[in-house]
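Quick log. Single chain, no ligands specified.
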Amino acid sequence: MKILITGSGGLIGKEIAYQLSKNKKYDLNLLSNKRINNNKKNFYQNLLKPIKLKLKPHAIIHCAAKHPNSRSGSNMKNIYFTNMKITKNLIKFANKNNVKKIFFLSSIDVYGLIKKKMVFENQNPFKPNLYAKSKFLSEKLFCKNNNNFQAICLRIPGVFTLNLEKNYPLIIKITKKILNNEDVIAYNLNKKFNNTLDVKEIVKFINFALRKKNIKSEIYNFSASNPVKFIYLINLIKKIFKSKS
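-> predicted structure:
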């Protein structure tokens, strides 16, 4: 099965590619805006321009996006227009090349300011920023009935990866401190917490959905099903790494 992964040079895309590479049934083709190497399976592509790859993948895993934590991500208007342009170019490519499924990594940021204990897919956003709006509108475009593919949009929280270079999401910042035996200052310790997700869980879902022949284009909240207290999570990380924090 031929799979195209956008944003394969980023933290999440890179690890998704690594996890999927363990399945020899997949023919992975990696798309990045960084020139990685001359491997025939790695493609350089500026997604702001029309995609002219001579490739007809069965599925696309869309990880590429500009966000506020990007190196050049401070300009919200630029973030919005960049993400919307990428979405439209990818949809054109998918429809033209008979792609069957697209997995779009959206974000729980689409809800804007969350004031409720639980959020549902049909909940209206409250004061979302332009990054959130770009994700929300991209979901709508991917799920339009006139597309030739099925779209699975996953609204994900902060993703925990093996790469600890960055200081986001929050759980990675805390983990780095614990690894270095630094003290951690944290608040709302008894608050239930499920605002993080392991890349392996995303890959498990993708493997499951790829096996399904008919999946309705849909939007899903995707995070841990059983929230735990924040203090439990911090102590668990401390125990795993035998930290003196």
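The helical segments are 11-20, 76-96, 130-142, 170-179, 199-211, 230-240.
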